[in-house]
Amino acid sequence: MKTPDDEAVNTPADGEAMIVAEDVAKWFGHFQALKGISTTVRRGEVVVIVGPSGSGKSTFIRTINRLERHDRGRIVVDGIELTDDIRNIERIRSEIGMVFQSFNLFPHLTVVDNITLAPRNARRWPKPKAEQKAAQLLERVGIPEQARKYPAQLSGGQQQRVAIARALAMEPKIMLFDEPTSALDPEMIKEVLDVMKELAGSGMTMVVITHEIGFAKEAGDRVLFFDGGLIVEEAPPDVFFSDPKSERGKLFLSQIL
Amino acid sequence: MSGSGSLPGDLERTPIPATEEPVVQVAPTRPPLTPGEWVRRNLFSSWFNGVLTIVSGTLVLFFGFRLLRFVFVSADWSVLRANLRVYMVGRFPQEELWRVWAVAYFLAVLVGLSRGFLIPPHRTRRGSYLRVVLAVLALGALFYLVKSLLVWLLLAIAVALYAGGVAAGRRLGRRLVRPVLVAWLFAFPVVVLVLSLGDVGASRWGGMLLNVIVAVAVIALSFPLGILLALGRRSSLPAVSWFCVGFIELIRGVPLLTLLIFGRFVLILLVPPGLTFAQVVRAILMFTLFSSAYVAEIVRGGLQGVPEGQYEAAKALGLSTTRTMALVALPQALRSTIPPMIGHFISVFKDTSLLAALSFSDLLFTARRASQAFEFVGRQAEALLPAAFLFWVIAFSMSRWSQRVETRLGVGER
Amino acid sequence: MATAASTARPPLWRNVRFLRILGQAVFVLLLVIVIREAFLNLEFGVQEQNLDLSFDFLRQRAGFAIKEGIGYSPNESFLSAFLVGVVNTIRVALVGIVLATFLGLIMGVARLSSNWLVRRMAQVYVEIVRNTPVLVQIIFWYIAVILALPVIEGGLSLWDLAFVSNRGTAVAWFRLEDGAEAWGLFLAAGAVAGAIVLRRRTRLVERTGRSAPRVLWAVGAFLVVAALGFLLSGTPVAADVPEVGRFGYEGGLQVSPEYTALLLGLVIYTGAFIAEIVRGSIQAVPKGQKEAAEALGLTPRQQLRLVVLPQALRIAIPPLNSQYLNLTKNSSLALAIGYPEIVSVSNTIINQAARATQMLLLVMATYLLITLSISAVMNALNRAVTRKGRR
Do B244 and B129 share a structural domain? Predict the structure, then answer.
């Protein structure tokens, strides 16, 4: 949970709505994955999404940056509405960075090239500028010495940190995390969570799907509990994890604790 | 481990003190088999095997002996000696042959370099022995066939260039990838240009030269076309993907020969009247279409091997579809397609022999025609076998190289 | 699906969905333009030659002879000639597929033999044959072997049951006489009897767990009925052994030297590839399968029959399909040696009637039909063997 001191450091436009979802629904064939999600994520907020598998958590955050197309409802990111308009989609994507469960690093490129690929090609940054930014980011995530290595030569935790740096290279306003530590061996989870906590502390707007309760309590502002395509419960982390109000919430916690 | 009265006495196990713990047993290394043991194990391990060995051994000796006797004693290789130049370059005018040598040198260097950095040196004793034997045989054959000192000199230069290329390739390694790739890209137009300037037109290409040119042309042209087809087939636009699927399946369902015949008779009617191109060009065009369908299937396989997450990450980063394909998907896909791709290129080379069926003067046609010449009646085998051997040597070498590239790529280049 | 309810409709030129439709429309339009252009050129070019694009010419008299053609004379139509070509293609393709599969099976197993000599020989065979172009091999068999053989009396003979010379091949065959139809009925009845016996025996085995050679019983039943029927219908099958006559072979099943050479070339060539498929698919069965079977107490023969081979078969079917298609398509190379199959005959027709476009369309459509049929059969086979489980 953020302390009052942290909040004072936050950006001045605190409280502004960065992501607005209104009654978002999505079908896959006959199966309805999202049944009407409505929520607002404010600037600087760290929203943690939990829930059983198949509850629609992944589908939801993937609709935010158009990796999936929502079939009903409204999604507005930083004032831009997510429609079929190419320009809107591109602008929204440029403001969102995403970190995947399976890292999805490009195996044929070095760490540095992984990070600089998008800025150089989608933003037309010159190589020196991109590489300087990459160096800074690698420093920030704690692995500056791995710059010239290939992903296969790094541990899982290091790879995920590179993935975070890669997403940050595009200078996003929002970071989405889809179970970032679920594919990691236990001893490597901490290093990734530390980076995420630092990110949260620096005022980044984050939506994180995770099972790491410790992280949720330390860095999260709000917990959304998904089940069956709906937000069943919404509460601050220490409230939800100690005393969930809903039956399904209680059931879920009894299964993971 | 010691029971303290809970187990009956005879089941009690005495505890093993740690110091006496037995050493971990590794599988004992087998001493190399003596020749006698080897024969017994590999050839006569059962009575059935013994019978097999005797039968097949007899066959091998019988046919082997007859083959050797044929090659070295009873065969009359004069048909080859008289026609060597026609076999190799067809009716290429003699005064322009320097062009062929120039191209040969260029390719020798290029192939040498490619081999140098792609294929690890083959350092087995048996490999070296084999190499020496082959070299001796090759020299012997050349002694018999080539009487001109000039040709010997030119050949020696070619071999030297090739060996130099291999050495340089091994030394310089990965740095060469880009320049060599670019050189290969330019190889085809350069080769064609050099060989058609002056008075020499495409109609004068013949013999092995024709096969090589057509093979190189088809490979160079069908590679990008095949990639485009594969991308089209994966397109999310149904119109495009259906067209590509239909095109690919149509081409794969008909024999190459029918496509070549189509090129000979019908293609010319489909283009604006007045526009015409040489028969060889038509053959190359149809052959390219044929090859690109197969390249497309190979590339499609490679693209399927690229995990979906790669595309998602690229999309999330804001890369356009084209950029994603070019920078993320294709580089990964193509690496896994190298072995089947080389296999396909070998097939293309072998299939250039189909030109003979349409009376193009390639190596096979030349050999067949030589066998029909009056003075060589009854010597069909002597006329054909060298052609078969030439085809075989090149295809076999390429397939050996492909296997070694495969093992090298598999051993975690990255 | 309901569309996204949005407040602002994006302009058409930036709308993702519209652009997709537009892209496809443009593509189709370009395609149509190119095809139309080509077609107009074709019409023009064809008219220049005083020809047309119809298929009516197929009914004209052919006027040329075909060396190997059932029920054909030069008075027949072009279409008849073409059909003779189709039959000839099927003749060589079907026989080729069967023989090549046998050869490939034997060679593939030989590649895995524990006998070093057998293994090496098979390897040499595969490496030599695979890397030599098939046309080279066909022409080699034709001009260096078959044609080089002496005339009839001097030719090769296999125990007087088969003869090969440069006039062709003659193989002992059977001849159907009166009563053959009756025997056919008996054969059908025999097949039914065999199936019934198989079913009953299988149920018996399942019920009592006794291992009974049920296939043997079924085959036995079939044979008994067949033999009975044979006798009862007056032994309607006679052996037809070829004899070396003065002007040629008499009797037996005769085929031309061209057919012989083509078949030899195709079978030996495709056999090498099938050998590799057999070897590869047996090796592709995970070692753990064999080990598990062994651990369960199955004998090596049972392991092979019940565990390894069925799985190897499933793996092998798609590449086998490929090879069968290749063999069929390679039969077109008969053009180079004058065996009158589809391409050869069509070439002659083009020389006579000059309608290359129509003929080529016909040829390609026919090959597509044949390859699709073969693939359909193989796909059905594939489904049948994978039905019982995954993979």
Answer: no
Is the domain of B350 the same as that of B412?
A: yes
B333 & B398 share domain? yes
Helices (H), ranges, A96-236 = 111-122, 127-141, 156-168, 186-201, 213-219
Pair A174, A163: CB distance under 8 Å: no
Name chain C contacts of B238, Cβ cutoff 8 Å.
24
- Please report the residues numbered 71 through 100 in chain B whose beta carbons come closer than 8 angstroms to any beta carbon of chain C: none
Residue A157's Cβ-side half-sphere holds a number of Cα atoms within 13 Å equal to: 15
- Residues sharing a CB contact under 8 Å with residue C176, sequence separation 6 or more, in sequence order: C236, C237
CB contact (8 A) between residue A85 and residue C4: no
d(CA B306, CA B77): 53
Q: Does domain C78-172+241-390 have CATH number 3.40.640.10?
A: no
What value of ipTM does the predicted structure carry?
0.85
- Which of the listed residues B200, B221, B253 is the one where a domain comes to its end? B200
Rounded to an integer, the average pLDDT of B6-19 is 43
Amino acid identity for residue B119 in this structure: I
Q: Which residues of B touch A207 (CB under 8 A)?
A: none
Domain boundary pick from B200, B227, B244: B200
Residue ranges making up the domain that contains B140: 93-200
Q: With an 8 Å Cβ cutoff, are C8 and A71 in contact? A: no
Instruction: Say what the alpha-carbon torsion angle C106, C109, C110, C116 is, to the nearest 10 degrees.
Output: -170
> Do B312 and A102 count as a contact with CB atoms less than 8 A apart?
no
Q: Are C128 and B255 an interchain contact pair (Cβ–Cβ within 8 Å)?
A: no
Residues of A in contact with C23 (CB under 8 A): none
Residue C347: how many CB atoms within 10 A of its CB? Answer: 21
**Residues of chain B with C-beta less than 8 angstroms from the C-beta of C368:** 250, 253-254
Domain count, chain B: 2
- Write out the two tokens for C19: 């652009």
pLDDT at A209 over 90: yes
Q: Could you say which residues from 361 to 380 on chain C have a Cβ atom under 8 Å away from some Cβ of chain B?
A: 363-364, 367-368, 371-372
> Whose structure tokens read 């056999």?
C271
pLDDT (tens digit per residue) in C319-364: 999 999 999 999 999 999 989 999 999 999 988 888 888 899 999 9
Residues B282, B265 within the same domain? yes
pLDDT tens-place string over residues C244-275: 776 677 777 778 888 989 999 999 999 999 99
| B356, part of any domain | yes
Q: Please judge whether B316 and A90 are an interchain contact, meaning their C-beta atoms are less than 8 angstroms apart.
A: no
Question: Under 8 Å CB-to-CB from B13, ≥6 apart: which residues?
Answer: B1, B2, B3
Q: Which residue has the tokens 């793996």?
A: C315
Task: Tell if the CB–CB gap between A122 and B412 is shorter than 8 Å.
Answer: no
Same domain (yes/no): B224, B147: no
